[in-house]
What does this fold into?
Amino acid sequence: MTIVWESLAKIGFMFALIMGMVVVLIWMERKGAAYIQDRTGPNRAAILGIRLAGLVHPVADVFKLLFKEDITPDGRHRALYNLAPWLVMTIALSTYAVVPFGDFLTVAGRQVPLVVADLDVGLLFILAIASLGTYGVVMAGWAANNKFTFLGGVRATAQMISYEINMGLALMGLILVFASLRITDITAGQADLLWGWLPKWGVVVQPLGFILFLVSVFAETNRNPFDLPEGESEIVAGYHLEYSSMKFALFFMAEYAHMVIGAALIATLYFGGYQIPWLPRPALEAHAGTLLTVKLVAVALVSLLIALLFMRRVQREKGKFGDARDREPVLGMGLWLVVAVAAAGALLLKPWAIGPAGASVFASLAQVGAFLVKLVFFAWLFIWVRWTLPRFRYDQLMRLGWKVMLPLGLANLVVTALVVALV
Amino acid sequence: MEGILFWFCGALLFLGGLMMVVQRSAVVSAVWLVFAFVCAAGIFAVLEAPFVAILQILVYAGAIMVLFLFVIMMLQGPVLEGEGKRIPLGLWPLIALPPAAVVVLVVGYLRQPQKTGFAGPVPEGFGSVSHVAGLLLGKYLLAFELISIVLLVAIIGALAIGLGERKLPWR
It folds into this structure.
């Protein structure tokens, strides 16, 4: 029975991680867009005057979408129209089953691997599930019985077929280098050092493969510059044009869930996953006491600094708004002071003398933290690219996929195979 | 447990196949066929062949049926009203034939005194990637390569028919 509870706990963690990341990403997208376009971005929604720099907006969005009227077109195909958003979301969520978010965690003397399903064919599983993702988009486009949604669906099909091949080719080089289809094997293989100083990350051993994979992931997630299926200046909103309320929200969340999985895949396959460079697991456990102490001191100092910054804001903005929003800097200062005091207080527990069990847990959590940092960075990369590059024209998209990336991918595969066979 | 999963996937596969045949809209038919493919993959997974199961989804459900759906939608377009006709009465026996065959097979299996269905545990590593690869690129290499040549010839043939002989790129 323990294994069932363990699996349920891991699934719950992954689900919470994705849904939390979706909310944070929506905020990051709007604030990032504002930053790149030299605006302030959303900052109006507030709970009792607390605005959290716009983080309240996603909460407001959720309630707005939940209570909106669900408008449906008359000529729709009922079953497929209702099935499509559900399918898109389910498929976006199920890919995470094979992505490891840590090495293992020792709970009550048992080593629990931090991955939901450590499949023998993990990489193929990802490709298979990703390829099923097309159906939701196509069904949505067709079932709404609208020319624009239909065009969006057709575009999505053609684009996904074209770029799935490139994704597979890019991954084949990686499979050859690490000699396994199991994702945990690939991640574990990236802990090694090349020539004693360079981490053997996927991006180091497969630079061209990484670029091809990155472009394919952008195309698979339908993000700019590959968002032709919903190109709003050409076909209104593409495949989800006729959806409203929570059904639209499902498409919207699925896009961000796809971004999270894309970022997780880039981090796991090409940037060492949960591995901290130059700090493999044995070293982490051996120096756990020192590292934990340094970390606590750093947290205490940084939160103290932030609290001081808030204090300056309290002095400057006294009575600026004349309503509940004036309380926000005071509260921020208080919260960060509490964090600083808590971190400093934790030093009294002598973290430098941590036992082996604690060291093991610390190492596991540090690796999960490393994975999350990489995940957030690559999620930010998606946003960064979206607000920097313009959309492709359709013929450019096809030319890039078939005439540039496919030959490059094949060449990369042949060269990798030769090198692997000879070395 | 495995038996339950096997019959569960089998029943769903049967349902998918049946619904695919009786649907009037070609697009809905194609969606039911995808459903049937996924159920077939489930049966492979129950039968200790995870690699074949994943390939079933990846190749058939993920690639070939997407192309099918693409073509159907391109030809049919988003027309839903009065599409297709009712299946003529004379065709129903043909549609009923495969289900009838399944019923006969199941009844025959149940009447058999010694059931050979779920044989004992499979050897270690059965159905893994290396096992399948060893068979495909070792024992059955010639057949495997010949099939790929057949596919290549079929593609070139389709190109020749589709473009017309005059327009072929090598003319």
User: Anything to note?
Assistant: The interface with chain A takes residues 25, 27-28, 31, 34, 38, 50-51, 54-55, 57-58, 61-63, 66-67, 69-70, 73-74, 77-78, 80-81, 128-129 of chain B (CB under 8 Å). The two ends of chain B are 60 Å apart (CA to CA). Residues 1-78+92-105 of chain B form a domain with the Four Helix Bundle (Hemerythrin (Met), subunit A) fold (CATH 1.20.120.1200). The CA atoms of residues 24 and 85 of chain B lie 7 Å apart.
